[in-house]
Amino acid sequence: MAKKLIGDPIDRIDGDLKVTGRARYSADMKRPDMVYGVLVMSSIGNGRIRSFDTAETLKMPGVLTVMSYGNAPKVAGINKNKPSEVATDRVMSLFQDNKVHYNNQPIAMVIADTFEHAVDGAARVKVTYESQKPKPPLPAGRNNTFTPERLPRYDDQVDTKRGNLKAGLSGASTKVTETYTTPTQTHNALEPHALIAYWEGEKLTMYNATQGVSGVQKRISELFGMPKENVRVIAQFVGGGFGSKGATWSHVMLAPMAAKLVGKPVKLVLMREHMFGMVGWRSSTVQKMVVGTKKDGEFTALSHDTISQTSAFDEFAEPAGTISRMMYASPNMESTHRLIRANIGTPSAMRAPGEAPGVFALESVVDEVAYAINMDPIALRLKNYAETDPHKNLPFSSKSLRECYQQGAERFGWAKRTPEPRSMREGNELIGMGMASSIYPVNRAESTALVRIKPDGKVQVETGTQDIGTGTYTVMTQVAADVLGLSPDDVTLSAGDTRFPESTTSGGSRTTASTGSAVTQAAQAVLKQAKQLAYKDKRSPLFNVAEAEIVAENGRLQTKSDPRQGETFVSLLKRNGSKPLEAKMLSKSADEKDNYSLNAFGSIFAEVRIDEALGRIRVSRMIGTFAAGRILNAKTARSQILGGMIWGVSMALLEDTLIDPRTGRVMNPNLAEYHVPVNADIEEIDGFFIEEKDETVNPAGVKGIGEIGVVGSVSAIANAVYHATGKRIRDLPITLEKVLDYR
Amino acid sequence: MEYTNHKNYIIDGAGRRWFLKQSSALVGMLALPPLIGQAGTAPASSVPPGLPMKRAITLRINRKAYRIEVEPRETLLDVLRERLDLIGSKKGCDHGQCGACTVHIDGRTANACLLLAVMQQDRDITTIEGLAPSPDRLHPLQTAFVEHDGLQCGFCTPGQIMSGVAVLREGHAGSTAQIKEWMSGNICRCGAYSGIVDAIEAVQKGGRQV
């Protein structure tokens, strides 16, 4: 078998399980005596429950009980159920009181022997309310804002100031001031949130669709007021998360509470319409941008003021302004974040939280400046290129954005573009070409991994990470195999379970940087043990060879100079008692973040074609070029990037959670009316990586690629729509009625 | 047609093995004459008015026959997943909007969440579990999905593959645009669309009967 190296496009190790339907996701698990929970949701946006009439439900065959605030088990750690410093800890609705904070809030659960009985029972619960007028979400209430306590990433400041904005603007020859708005977006991972919870005495086990088994374990144990060791969370396969499965939401407590109440395993799968509100969404934003520039394009001032919305009972601020602080070398820069309160479910992180809406506003206004001063948009960006991070005042660990612009422009054929709006057409279609920068910060969190070389020469990796579709399982085996000079086929991974060493949540594009570093370091440590064993062993061909001279290649330990001098792990371990070697490593950031600004960069080029008479918009071509450190698997990495870019198409043109301001009720809580792209919406699309070696960023040398594909794609499309039509649309999504308005 | 009780079915994986063992009570019940639940045989007083009564049906799934008692309101998808542990067909929306539950009924694609199980007797139902020619050999389109990375989280994948096979068999894979159009009933939220199209094109170009 050909040796599979890091970077090679190897197939997913779970591919066969997924294409045959044998991969078991949380809702596919079964337990003896399992019963079904179905939630009853509030139908008012604000107020109190006066009473439940459950008589009819309880008379139905198969119905065990209705759990609501009257009979729900008391939550011992309820004092922990409050706005938290941890972005993933959200305030839950746990049936401990009769308050209704938003429409479509879970207020009761019917538990029955079959799914059908539970659904029927839930439909027959009658609720009477004392209703108050709900506070509407944005754009209402934008004059009644407050300053959030914090932004989701703990080291991001809420407001920033650099230089003197006023002075910068007075020194500008051109000033552009515009406001951009983005809608509430709902994650809609295709796998509904699901869990099966059961108790064995004091011990709780949950099969849970989550982006972080260890985060759930921590949160659930503190809320139940029980030791962490008594909670086991398993997520072997997760059907997408995109942020919504990163936090521990109400249902993750409600199912084990119900299991306790009825003394049986409870299966709770949220219905699609239940997932509009109670499991997070991306807040709508209103963003005011101001740019001052000299005639030659040099920015003298830049400001970015964001308003987003949070719920009536919790606080989450969409950090849209953070990139504007550091993307361009403007000497004068100010940014603020404000919130309004509305009667809605609490917003949360959604793929590229902050960056996706924020960079839409930033890269749109930069395009507007380019037109205002008649300059090529790439030239304008290069003119203001930040050689160092102007916000942190630190050098970049690496930055290849210039190359991303150049290579992207070449691949796309940017030179063929005539800059004048409405200057390119073919038949009935106006053609527009737009570009934008993409960026995503490198996040890293503590992660632990164990690597074991077994006497048969095979390797076992254990780490409590999970694969939400990114290819983590595949990539972790590659990382271990690479360090140990083996084929990934020789490596077995145990993951997706809190039984394994604690790893981080799969969010913020941090898994490979965090868990990949842990696997790298654990594999390096176990390799060092093997080398020591060899050079201290008189019977080894490597006896007395200097450690630095020994390399692991092709399943062998051998000397650098003579590959024939060496032996396999099998023979080494056989002579030494046939005992496995293992190393467990906790990997965390050192001081790299204090000394460097760590970011992945990219460029997006998009071509749109718009039917002049009908306003129909299609993205006919899209090319993304990224510099994101070491790429571990060319195949899964490309899929991640393309998926991100498709999310960009989706945000630019389709997604919009419509909330009725009078009732706070979502008007399109389903996949027919909440639009996401289907296959025919995606035409030519391709993604490329620039080789970038960065040994500073982390031991794995990777920067994270899960979110950067989304970031610049939204504005590249918006800018292309302007180029095609001459109409600048600052309110997402860009739909045909907004485009048709141009005459 | 050979009748197969649950316990005789070839099982794959610990979960399924356990589940079918658990279901032995159900199997025993099914061994009774197929009259249970027929209108008129159950005393009317024991069932609250308006509640549907169970009836015994036979479903032909993946070339095997299953005798099972269902309520008339049970969807084919819920019967596959909850009663027969054929969990490859996924529930993404339960409204026929996402395509994750796509199966073949008499060779045509259908959303199992929109069909009532009681209405599928005398039809040949194929699910993702029945697509591969044998447990250790994949269908060519399954192989192509892995090779071309036509998946990420894998949740929509069974439905995509069932639709993809139908698109190939029905002759709708003539061009990239045609494949995209005919595959647009299956949502992939991860955005694996280009891999999905590449996989279908590769099988089409391979020219093998699928």
TrEMBL record, chain A:
Aldehyde oxidase/xanthine dehydrogenase a/b hammerhead domain sequence ranges: 20-133
UniProt protein name: Xanthine dehydrogenase YagR molybdenum-binding subunit
SMART domains named in the record: Ald_Xan_dh_C
Key words, A-Z: Molybdenum, Oxidoreductase
Pfam families: Ald_Xan_dh_C (PF01315), MoCoBD_1 (PF02738), MoCoBD_2 (PF20256)
Annotated spans, Disordered: 129-151, 494-516
Organism (species): Spirosoma utsteinense
Signal peptide, first to last residue: none
Compositionally biased tracts (Low complexity): 503-516
UniProtKB/TrEMBL annotation, chain B:
Cross-referenced Gene3D superfamilies: 3.10.20.30, [2Fe-2S]-binding domain (1.10.150.120)
UniProt xrefs under CDD domains: fer2
Keyword set, alphabetical order: Iron, Metal-binding, Oxidoreductase
Domain of life of the organism encoding this protein: Bacteria
Domain 2Fe-2S ferredoxin-type: 55-131
InterPro entries reported for this sequence: 2Fe-2S-bd (IPR002888), 2Fe-2S-bd_dom_sf (IPR036884), 2Fe-2S_ferredoxin-like_sf (IPR036010), 2Fe-2S_ferredoxin-type (IPR001041), 2Fe2S_fd_BS (IPR006058), Aldehyde_Oxdr_Iron-Sulfur (IPR052914), Beta-grasp_dom_sf (IPR012675), TAT_signal (IPR006311)
UniProt xrefs under PANTHER family: OXIDOREDUCTASE WITH IRON-SULFUR SUBUNIT, OXIDOREDUCTASE, IRON-SULPHUR BINDING SUBUNIT-RELATED-RELATED
Protein name per its UniProtKB record: Xanthine dehydrogenase YagT iron-sulfur-binding subunit
